[in-house]
Design goal:
642 residues, alpha+beta, Rossmann fold, Jelly Rolls, 2 domains, eleven-stranded mixed β-sheet, globular
């Protein structure tokens, strides 16, 4: 039993429980003792905290902590169990940590599961109207660290913290004005700014399918007794989310399909449809200051939930903190794919090696070993990024690489795409534009097969199904004579017009495989148990990056403005970063469209507050993309010379 100073020990396990021993990994139970505590915060609220202490007391160990809203209970047979007799199958980010020895700490954040207090979504770091039971994450972490150092014997005085997705946010929030004992932190896929490119909105467009799927199963669980079973996935009543959402069409009708409890968190995200105070207060990036720990931020190129967060977090920490290591790792992974999978494939795309295993063993583990235990390790580069296309790891002194050069790919006549600006003679006719009709009743799908939720592989999926549609513009280069490596953000620079007063513009950057590409692969997992048709890799159109932009936000996300019908309007926005090499023999393609459904909610193509739209408000519109003198459309990129 651990001696106590100011906290309440709920229980401590000192020997295996034979009833459950067949459900857990014996090594965890054999080598660690589990304790449960209620740790008091400065305002008297107590946070439920689970501590796994090595039984080997011959040395002192650092703490490695996760703070989570998803419950610290051990998941067995679909149920969450609290109690010292229940052990997880593993501890820490990988088996290496468990074998090396750490004091592992898992904590329910305020108002979630067994912790007291009031839970807030994306807790604002500055809250002038703090209500009873609400807290500040950095203060809760500070108080927890203080308590752990004083009450858990056998510690070496050093603390690390890590977490993926929402726990990634809590990692970032916990190291602001950080406790001096926190020596290392790894926010992974950290939710950073929900409106600006994270889970909720991209380019001002609501990410419908992902948010509906998440909030229909994530509800507020405050001090539940007894512990609830997971409410499971939403029952669409069909395997085809495209038809499901199209049937209901408007956000009002879609929200009405949820229960009252499910709507509690979904509806506020829908109703706050501009970048207002609700979102600004929840953006953690401006507050990432006075960080005294080494930080290693991790993300995935194909993370459908938080592709924006890792780079935004890295940038903010770099701008606001000096004197401590600030690193970035980006690999070819889906959301959290680096944690458990091997990272060798995604959908039909093969990355040539077990990238996740490499990261866990050669990057993450040495990082924590060095800063928490003083183990000598080769210095990590500031940016360690996987280059897709060539399938190699690259190390850079900063991200994006400073040696990259700005270039523009221009849209041309007959679907051409070139580094050379179109000549005036070639594009001076009155028809120096391309157009299509966007019909909200027949929106462009984002995948070619039937599914619910958001399949993990959509971010690399074959786009041939879209390139043949009349409402998708297609531009592509000639066959490349040498490799072209593009790094950093993609910036569409468009000149557009619409017969409506609002429109979505979705730009997709695509790698077109050669027509003689060897077809020796095996189709991979496509998510949600819905296999796609057999794919031929010859001529495959691999999505590299896609992003929407809602035109009414072209000048301000706080104050939307209507388009003037038929008037040519410049439209520039930033898409998330990439690090991709288009190989010799391939082509670079850009597709432009005005819907991406149901990944993105439908635009009525009339200027209005979309959450208030009725089905009758959704109208057809003719969209044009111009390539005339003074109105050359294209995409600006950063090209890395080899």
């Amino acid at each position: 039993m651990i001696s106590m100073i100011s906290g309440e020990v709920l229980a401590a396990a000192t020997k295996p429980d034979s009833e459950n021993s067949d459900q857990v990994t014996a090594t965890v139970r054999e080598h660690y003792t589990k304790y449960e505590y209620h740790i008091p915060m400065r305002d008297g609220i107590r946070l439920f905290t689970v501590v796994y202490v090595p039984k080997d007391r011959k040395q002192n160990y650092p703490f490695l902590m996760v703070r989570t809203p998803y419950g610290t209970g051990v998941h067995l047979n679909g149920e969450s169990h609290y109690g010292v007799d229940f052990y997880p199958k593993n501890l820490g980010p990988s088996k290496d940590f468990e074998n090396s020895g750490y004091i592992f700490v898992n904590q329910d954040v305020r108002g979630r599961y067994m912790s007291e207090g009031k839970w807030q979504e994306m807790t604002p770091h500055i809250n002038p109207q703090l209500q009873s039971g609400e807290g500040i994450e950095s203060q809760d972490m500070h108080d927890t660290v203080d308590w752990l150092l004083k009450n858990i014997p056998g510690n070496n005085g050093k603390v690390g913290i890590w977490g993926i997705s929402y726990p990634g946010f809590y990692t970032s929030a916990s190291i602001i004005d950080s406790h001096p004992a926190i020596k290392a932190a790894s926010p992974q896929a950290p939710v950073t700014d929900l409106f600006m490119g994270d889970d909720s909105y991209h380019g001002g467009a609501f990410m419908l399918a992902a948010n509906f799927d998440f909030y229909s199963s994530f509800t507020e669980e405050k001090n539940p007794t007894p512990l609830p079973k997971s409410i499971g996935s939403f029952d669409y009543g069909t395997k085809d989310a495209y038809q499901y959402f199209l049937k209901h069409q408007s956000l009002k009708n879609i929200a009405a399909q949820l229960s009252e409890k499910q709507r509690e968190l979904f509806v506020p995200n829908v109703e706050h449809s501009t970048y207002d105070g609700y979102w600004k207060s929840r953006n953690i990036a401006p507050h990432l200051k006075n960080i005294k720990a080494a930080v290693l931020t991790v993300g995935g190129w194909f993370d459908a939930e938080d592709v924006h967060g890792p780079v935004a977090t890295y940038d903010s920490i770099k701008a606001n903190n000096k004197g401590h290591f600030n690193g970035l790792v980006l690999g070819p992974w889906v959301h959290g794919g680096w944690a458990g999978a091997d990272g060798e494939t995604l959908g039909d795309v093969d990355f040539g090696s077990k990238t996740s295993e490499y990261y866990r063993k050669n990057i993450l583990f040495p990082f924590f070993e060095h800063y928490l235990k003083g183990v000598d390790a080769a210095p990590l580069a500031e940016a360690t990024v996987f280059e897709t296309g060539t399938n190699v790891w690259r190390e850079y002194s900063s991200w994006p690489p400073q040696q990259a050069q700005s270039k523009t790919l221009f849209f041309g006549a007959d679907g051409s795409l070139s580094w050379t600006q179109p000549s005036v003679a070639a594009e001076s006719t009155p028809t120096a534009y391309d157009e299509y009709v966007s019909d909200p009743k027949k929106p462009v799908p984002y995948i070619s097969y039937v599914s619910t939720g958001v399949p993990r592989e959509y971010m690399v999926s074959d786009q041939r199904f879209a390139s043949t549609r009349p409402d998708v513009l297609v531009y592509q280069t000639d066959v490349l004579q040498e490799d072209v490596t593009i790094v950093g953000a993609i910036v569409p620079k468009l000149f557009v017009s619409s017969t409506g007063t609002d429109a979505d513009w979705v730009v997709k950057l695509i790698d077109v495989y050669p027509s003689d590409y060897p077809d020796d692969h095996v189709p991979r997992e496509h998510g949600h148990d819905v296999p796609p048709p057999t794919v031929t890799m010859a001529g495959y159109q691999q999505l590299v990056r896609g992003e929407p932009m809602r035109a009414k936000f072209r000048n301000s996300f706080e104050h939307p403005e209507p388009l003037i019908a038929h008037q040519v309007t410049p439209l520039t926005y930033k898409m998330p970063d990439i690090n991709h090499t288009f190989r010799r023999g391939h082509r670079i393609m850009v597709q432009v469209q005005s819907s991406w459904f149901p990944l993105v909610d439908l635009n009525p193509q009339q200027f209005m507050d979309i959450p208030k739209a009725n089905p009758k408000d959704f109208q057809k519109a003719t969209q044009r993309v111009y390539r005339a003198p003074g109105q050359y459309s294209g995409i600006a990129v950063q090209v890395l010379a080899k």
